Amino acid sequence: MKIAIGQGSCGIASGSKKIEEAFRRHVAENNLQAEVTITGCIGSCYLEPIVDIYQDGGQMVRYVHMTEDKVDKVVRQHLMGHEPVEEYRISKSGTDFLEKQTRIALKNCGLINPEDIRDYIKVGGYKALKKAIFEMDGKTICQEVEKSGLRGRGGGGFPTGKKWGLVAAQTDPIKYVVCNADEGDPGAFMDRSVMEGDPHKMLEGMIIAGIAIGAQIGYIYVRAEYPLAVKRLKKAISQAEEWGFLGKNILGSKFSFEIRINLGAGAFVCGEGSALTASIEGNRGMPRVKPPRTVEQGLFGKPTILNNVETFSHIPFIIANGAQIYRGIGIDKSPGTKAFALTGNVNKTGLVEVPMGTSLREVIFDIGGGIKNNKAFKAVQIGGPSGGCLTEKYLDLSLDFDSLSKVGAMVGSGGLVVMDEETCMVSIAKFFMDFTEQESCGKCVPCREGTHLMNEILDDIVNGRGTKEQIDMLMELADTITTTSLCGLGKTAALPVMSTIREFQDEYYAHVVEKRCPTGKCKGLKRIEIIVGKCKGCGLCLDACPVNAISGKRRQPHVIDKSSCTKCKLCIDSCKFDAIVEI
Amino acid sequence: MIYTNKYMVINGEKVPFADEKNILDVVRKAGIELPTFCYYSELSVYGACRMCIVEDSQGNVIASCSTPPVHKMEIRTNTPILNKHRKTILRMLLASHCRECTTCSKSGNCKLQTIAKRFGIDEVRFDKTEKAFKDEYPIDDSSMAISRNPNKCILCGDCVRMCSESQNVGAIDFAFRGYEMMVCPAFNKPISETECVSCGQCAAVCPTGAITIKNDVPAVWDAIYNKKKRVVAQVAPAVRVGLGELFGFQNSENVMPLIIAALRKLGFDEVYDTSFTADLTVIEETNEFLNKLERGEKLPLFTSCCPAWVRYVENKHPELMPQVSTCKSPQQMFGSLVKSYMKDKYQDDDRETFVVSIMPCTAKKMEARREEFITDGFYDVDAVISTEGLADMITEAGIVFKELEPEAHDLPFGMFSGGGLIFGTTGGVTEAVIRKVIQDKTHTSIDNIKFSGVRGMEGIKEFEFPINEEGDAIRIAVVNGLGNAERLIQRINSGDVEYHFVEVMACPGGCVGGAGQPFGLADKKKRRTESLYASDKQTNLRHSDENPFIPPLYEGLLKDRVHELLHVHYK
Question: Domains in chain B, ordered, with CATH?
Answer without folding.
Answer: 7-78 (3.10.20.740), 89-213 (3.30.70.20), 218-566 (3.40.50.1780)
